[in-house]
Amino acid sequence: MNWHFALLLVPVVAWSQTPPAAPAPYVDAHVHPLAGSLQEPSAVMQQAGIRAMVLMPPPQVSGMRRVSDYESFVSAAREQPGRFAFLGGGGSLNPMIHDVAADGVDAALRERFAARARKILADGGAGFGEMSPHHLAARPGHPYESAPADHPLFLLLADIAAEHGAVIDLHFDLVAKEATLPAVFSTALNPSVLRPNLEGFERLLAHNRGARIIWAHAGADPLGHWTPQISRDLLSRHPNLHMSIRMGGGQSRMQNLMLSRDGSLEPAWRAVLEEFAERFVLGGDQFFVAGLPGTGPGIEFSRFAPIQRRQQAIFLSLLAPEVARKIGHENALRLYKLKH
Ligand SMILES: [Zn+2]
């Protein structure tokens, strides 16, 4: 057993003792079917009362061991349009952005990038994901990614999203002020000092108000800068900003959790969720890997999925019914154009 698994076991045991609640069928709007097949996600949906999932490839960069983009699951997803929506670009658009400096984008690259983005939408994608201007490596084999959020290709993507009523699902590890890397994230890939990145993110949000940006992993951020208060400030300033909520999922390194250890809802988060109930969806970051050979971060992350689902059910049961309805499914049906 390596130290990663040692870290995982304690919280897994604690949450597995909590009896599963039974929420109204909900949507999980951030799911990674790494194995391509949708058999395992379908079976899980049945058991867990999940009415639909939004599928997407993880945000990838050149030089890492790549998984694919949306092509691996698109035909299976299209067979069940009410149960699956999908986003693309994590395995194609995201590496294109990270491969070029902000001042190195020429007309030919813009053209190639836009053509790929339009192809994803033409194939039935509800938007682009998982994209990432800043992504900490959580494990060996997991990438560190850093590009300005207002990189010209992110701005171009916002324009294309706005033009088509599509969304951008954005993994963005917020650095509100310069910080040293927490020791638990010291892999070879992460820098030891993290530079502030909020201003570029706000410029991306302001660039085209027609682009709906869904900031992924509210309630489980690695650096602790994504607080309920900063969420309120940004949601107030940026009407096109949405957030998808990831429960802690038993990952003890995550901060700003919505469910406290005793299973209650953090009051500061509850206030933001109630004030901006139209702007949140659930996004469990569930990885499905059945049949995938070998090892890798995705296979390790897939172990969190059952805990994530249990916590999603508990979370929904703690919200006022009208807030649970919006966050649980209504917002997601609207944002990802899922059939009712
Ligand atoms: Zn992510």
Q: What Rg do the Cα atoms give?
A: 18 Å
Number of domains: 1
Determine the CATH superfamily.
Metal-dependent hydrolases
CATH topology: TIM Barrel
**Major beta sheet summary:** 10 strands, mixed
How many beta strands in the DSSP annotation?
12
Please tell me the overall pLDDT: 91
Write structural notes for this entry.
- With 340 residues, the protein is an alpha/beta fold.
- It has one domain: Metal-dependent hydrolases (TIM Barrel, Alpha-Beta Barrel), CATH 3.20.20.
- The chain is 37% helix and 17% strand.
- It is built from twelve helices and twelve strands.
- It has helices spanning 3-16, 39-48, 74-78, 93-98, 107-122, 152-164, 198-207, 228-237, 267-275, 297-301, 305-318, 321-335, and strands at residues 26-33, 50-55, 84-89, 127-135, 145-146, 167-172, 179-180, 193-194, 212-218, 241-245, 280-282, 286-288.
- The strands form two sheets. Strands 1, 2, 3, 4, 5, 6, 9, 10, 11 and 12 form a ten-stranded mixed β-sheet that branches.
- Helix 5 runs parallel beside helix 6 (152-164).
- The longest helix has 16 residues, at 107-122.
- It is globular and about 50 Å long.
- The relative contact order is 0.17.
- Residues 1-13 have low confidence and may be disordered.
- It binds zinc ion (ZN).
- Residues 130, 171, 216-217, 285 line the site of zinc ion.
Quick overview:
The protein is α/β, with parallel strands linked by helices and 340 residues long.
